[in-house]
Amino acid sequence: MSVARSKRRLRGALNRVLVVDDEPDIRELIDLTLSRMGLAAACAGSVAEAYACLAEDDFQLCLTDMRLPDGDGLDIVRHVTENYAEMPVAVITAYGSTENAVAALKAGAFDYLAKPVGLEQLRALVKSALNVSDGEGREYPLQSLTGESSAMQHVRVLIEKLARSQAPIYVSGESGSGKELAARLIHTRSARAGAPFVPVNCGAIPENLMESEFFGYRKGAFTGAESDRDGFFQTASGGTLFLDEVADLPLPMQVKLLRAIQEKRVRKVGAATEEPVDVRIICATHRSLRDGVEKGSFRQDLYYRLNVIELHMPPLRERVEDIPGLVDALLGKLCGDTVPRISAGALQALASYPFPGNVRELENVLERATALRSGDAIEAGDLQLAPDDAGGETPGRGSETLDDYLNRLERQAVLEALQKTEGNRTAAARLLGVTFRSLRYRLERLGIE
């Protein structure tokens, strides 16, 4: 189909799509599919033709092949990102070309399709892309990420950008720093906001149940499978799958997860065929995935597939100026309409404390203080912060490195829990508020027999 003919068809259309591919058959297939969806397509066979179309008409979406006669799809991705920031652009890659897909997503592509183009996946991508909003009029609780520090302002700006993409996101940060909250905000701001947000704690699932929990199973697939059941991927269809503590996944499951992400298809346990899935993956862990790759506990190919874009959540000790605002917000959450006053001394003590547990620990401290206070105000003594942990340049850790200090605190907490439960690891994990698998990992890491 000629460019001129395509342009004539576009006039008067509500949603316009630019299709760039040097293979006439693929252009025709995509054009026909879009027409049946009530969309108009302009087709171009080269980078130059694509630029000419973009200059003369308005489009709501661009689909481009990676290999073109006079350049590649990344050129178009960058051109669209720089000059038409509100228009999503998706790329069509060769089968199994993970490197190209990741490169396109990092360059700003909304999503990708692999050849041969599956029509179900094409329709799902187009529907998702054309629902992308500029956010006007949408209720969006970004203010729940309390804080006006430069670190939190950067986080909020990045969330705005990430919400418009389909690229996998790796949210890094220490325990209690708000990783799941950030993931939920990205989902809430995205075109997938009307679909499910499914959080999964990867460290809480027994290894022998992981495949059925993630991908579902057919009736009779194993003993106890009395009916068909969907897994996390099917439950999150059209929405976002949040994989928390993804570093805890065993290597065999990492292989299966990698295939599901790359091919956008999963096979239920006991099923003969795969089925397409449309989910966005956001993962998080308080551990370093890069360290896991170096130690051989995390696959390098999965690391690069998940870590397309990293969102780092800063620890509380790096944004001390946000503590007063967080205190007000948390006390409002804990106490409702009867918020107690907090003294200047108490605020100073909080500002001097390193908070290894971050915002989650701050909430626990305030909850304890509201219960223990004897007057109308929360005083420094009500916080019950250890004297060694308040004041000084390096509170509570002397000349120790931060990692050594946090490991010492963690070791002490684990040993106390084991002592209270007389060595019962299951009970100790429950007491610590972690999974048995997570406790076992900590015992190995800390060298506790």
Automatic annotation (TrEMBL):
Transmembrane segments: none
InterPro entries the UniProt entry points to: AAA+_ATPase, AAA_lid_NorR, CheY-like_superfamily, Homeodomain-like_sf, HTH_Fis, P-loop_NTPase, Sig_transdc_resp-reg_receiver, Sigma_54_int
Any GO molecular function: ATP binding
CDD domains per the UniProt record, alphabetical: AAA
Domain of life: Bacteria
PROSITE patterns, per the entry: RESPONSE_REGULATORY (PS50110), SIGMA54_INTERACT_2 (PS00676), SIGMA54_INTERACT_3 (PS00688), SIGMA54_INTERACT_4 (PS50045)
Segments forming domain Sigma-54 factor interaction: 145-371
Modified residues (4-aspartylphosphate): D65
Keywords for this protein: ATP-binding, DNA-binding, Nucleotide-binding, Phosphoprotein, Transcription, Transcription regulation
Ranges where the Response regulatory domain occurs: 16-130
Gene Ontology biological process terms from the UniProt entry: phosphorelay signal transduction system; regulation of DNA-templated transcription
Descriptive protein name: Sigma-54-dependent Fis family transcriptional regulator
Source species: Candidatus Dechloromonas phosphorivorans
Species lineage: Bacteria, Pseudomonadati, Pseudomonadota, Betaproteobacteria, Rhodocyclales
